[in-house]
Specification:
mainly beta; Nucleoside Triphosphate Pyrophosphohydrolase; eight-stranded mixed β-sheet; two-stranded antiparallel sheet; 10 strands; 36% strand; globular
Length: 152
Amino acid sequence: MELGGDGSCSALIASKRNVGRVRRMPVDVVCAILKRGETVMIARRPEGKKLGGLWEFPGGKVEPGEASADALCREFKEELGCDVRITRSLPPCQHTYDWGSIQLIPFECELAESSAEPHAHEHSELAWVTLEELSSYNMAPADLPVVEMLRS
């Protein structure tokens, strides 16, 4: 194991299959399955950003020392201008992209009673869709296991 610049073992892991290549630990990312009746909200990533044009369950990175649930509430306030109430947590799933790995931490949510409607501040578009309609949207690869969890 190789030490990170700060001397910590947890900062970096050396890959035994690719000697000399170093991979970072997965980044914790929260996402919400925001429900309204029989629909869930998905958001389209803006062109020009990583995974631009793909749809996702909205959320974002967990800051160091931040609880996952707090990160989700913060991200929704910042990116969608609304408040959510978490109703259930789902098992995390890991996905590796060419540029790095994430651990996606999904939560089922609903809009808080006094919340404003979500607005796309960071996304190019929002859509309320049924679980059946999800298959017609080009979802980000990390979100696909969450779609499967919802269908099971």
